[in-house]
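Dear colleague,

Thank you for sharing your sequence with our group. We've completed the structure prediction you requested, and as agreed, I am returning the results in plain text so they can be pasted directly into your records. Please verify that the sequence below matches your submission; if there's any discrepancy, let me know and we will rerun it promptly.
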Amino acid sequence: MPPAPATATAAAAAQHLESVLPCLTTLSHYKQFHAQLITSARLYFEPSLRARFLDRLALSAHAAALPHALLLLRSLPSPATNDLNAALRGLAASPHPARSLLLLAGRLLPSPSPPRPRLDALSLSFALKASARCSDGPATLQLHALVLRLGCTADVRLITTLVDSYAKCDDLASARKVFDEMTVRDVASWNALLAGLAQGTEPTLALKLFHRLVGSFRELPPREAPNEVTMVAALSACAQIGSLRDGLYVHEFVRKMGVSGNVRVCNALIDMYSKCGSLARALEVFHSIKREDRTLVSYNTAIQAISMHGHGGDALKLFDEMPTCIEPDEVTYIAVLCGCNHAGLVDDGLRVFHGMRVPPNVKHYGTVVDLLGRAGRLAEAYDTIKSMPFPADIVLWQTLLGASKTHGDVELAELAATKLAKLGSNVDGDYVLLSNVYASKARWADVGRVRDTMRSNDVRKVPGFSYTEISGVMHKFINGDKEHPRLQEIYRALEEIMSRIGELGYEPETSNVLHDIGEEEKQYALSYHSEKLAIAFGLIATPPGETLRVIKNLRICGDCHVVAKLISKAYGRVIIIRDRARFHRFEDGQCSCSDYW
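Please find the predicted structure tokens below.
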């Protein structure tokens, strides 16, 4: 180790290095600064300056900067806690966050390693951020044990990071337990759990937590007062479950909080209103944002909203109106292509696809295959798959299989089914589509072979279910539901519905039902699809004229689509159904999709 620097010029030299540090931009600059630290001996005798240099080096955007920071750390005879933390922070934010956990465990230090630096709350915080990015639940559990062993449970920021890590590892029960055990919280603590629940599998619990927060708002200390991040998380929960009533409540609270002009909040409002079936409100929020304040996310969210509701021409128009200072990204192109797909704008969709200013990924290709397949241009759809620079995935072949079924192309359907089998797909829908293609050509032996394959492969049908919100309560229905407390009324209403729409010419479409049951059984199976039960309940549980909103986990079937159109005409209701792909707005016997879906 070189001798300590002379005191006469030490202060001036140190001051010079301190002033240079913020100006470092290139790897060459960092190496020159590193050399200065070594030759002036400040690498060893100025630990504060060294740690700040390490921190800046580890977080640099230059690809070789982080490895250089790790080399520097390994070269130190006695690294300090701040040195370790700088490297942990850089690794946690890098494309390989798991290496932060290896460093914490000492496995990235030389062997035999120098004395390990002591860990502190900051060390654990960076490691927890790494485990969250890796979704590494066991690592988060081990870090939790370290938090307890080191006595850091009073550190609010650290425990908040622990809550966030558990939530991002899908261990929501542990996240809630840690949150409930906190004796002191701040708004970040509430936001961490709220976002975890909303973006995970518990959006309903997220809304309950939000109501709990708002209910005690007046008694909360200022540090726990909700902010725009709270609002975004709550709106995300509303969007996920499609609860317009809760969404309106959160929007009202946004106004009371005075954050309705915040662009992030506005973007979340657009997304929420769109996914709750209220496109008009979504666009009202979008147009309320000043043009110069709109971000790429604002445009992406609005274009997605318009596309999901079947207005492809309007989606294209908004895309073309994007200011030149905002460059479209992958999400933008997916949104526009979906709009063209849902509206049948084939030529416009191909124009957008071929004019993309970012490399297309498998989702872009998949949307184009669907676009061409729906239009009956199956040869072009297949050529698109063959032209891809990467292998087609299961979704792409399922898309081609669906198009082959729609247009009765047996050869292409068999090809797609073979590809799906090779990729390990064992979804009931694949077999049903192929079976229906054979049935349309009266190839009953092949229908039987498909049915036998399903039995031998133990193929299970994905259960269909639907939700509808009545008076602030979400009601769930499954196909052939037997559990709802008003079941008898619903089934009687459904019988009356079938009678009334029968007078309008309704005949059950049994083609999507498996062919191993009789026609009467097929009609019975169709009659009690979950969306029909949800609509029937909505008719008896809401006043005449009120809009009915239904959320379906699967794509709506052809028969339910026909039934919803006829109900809208027979009962004078607007019915909005959100399935896994898009929205359908039924009014006066017509659907917003124009039967192109």
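Summary note from our side: Strands lie at 465-470, 473-478, 548-552, 575-578, 583-587, 590-591.

Kind regards,
the structure core
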